[in-house]
User: Fold this.
Amino acid sequence: MLEPKIATTTKVAVFASSQNQRQLLQTMLEQNGLEVVVSEAIGEKFLTALKKNPPDVLLIDLRDDEDEDLDFLDILTGQSSTPILFNDSGPEGVSLAASGDNWAKKLAGKLTEMANGAKAVEKSPADETPFPMVNPQIPKTPAATPDVFAGATVNQTPAKTKTPVKSVGPEKAVDNADINVWVLGASLGGPQAVRQFLAAIQEDLPVVFILAQHIGANHVSLLAEQLNRVTAFDVLPGKTGHKLKHGEVILTPADKQLSITKDGFLALTQAPPATIYSPSIDNVMIEVARCYGQRSGTIVFSGMGDDGARGCEAIAENGGIVWAQDIASCVVSSMPDQARKTGKVSYSANPEQLARHLYEFYRKAK
Assistant:
């Protein structure tokens, strides 16, 4: 006689910065048959609780008024092989009255699928609200040194229709712009991807990179130090008066707006207070497209939201090249997905493949 199979309850760890939010999500999940083994705000206490009560799946609830909590997420995604579902509840949080039982059932079902190894369905923040799905896959190779810098400063409202970017024309380009300038755009999950990309870059690659990483203003120097340890290029925070040259990676300060003078020097001004993203990847791409035209390029790495999509249009419209990280290697694929939706992305791959492809591109161009 066969023994009856005992159903295994899916164990979930819930992160939300608001205690009310955590309690509401826990109630929703438990009413739909899941077991919440950890419910905490992100931090050392949360990480310790995960070790004591290992979950089958993580639910990370993001609110755009809690940017500092994202400092820990690159550590978490770099160290954990547990599948993660990011939910964007927006500044008001999840409302049971607004979302209803159907939303809770869908959430519970998605978490159960992921815990059982089913492939998660990907949706961008523009596709559905209040429950946008993002890629739960975690890179199999953890970072050697945990990242301790800030994550994204984003507003996850649905993307709006934007006016197409027109070519700026050669009259606005930098004088004697004989260098190749590529913008690297990254947010949540991006630091690990950018590190892998820069580690694979050849020293003689004729390119200067400008990294626009959603990051806290106090962590730019630390990010530069960490990247400097893995790449042949010189990594340094952007400063007014610095002249761009090949073999460098320039980090855009989070609280500044970057522009480039007609003779090719950086100029940093205070970012507008109404800026949604910090720093704005779109603004950096548009400025590089304006100045360098056909000598510009961009790669969009892992991140939430749609920052960079409009900038990709600007790069392409001015004769530049647009690439993106592929879905499989992203922690969160929303930003690369939004870039691909513009129709301007001509190549997608993992970070190491992107680096090799870039080298081959310029080797053939000689």
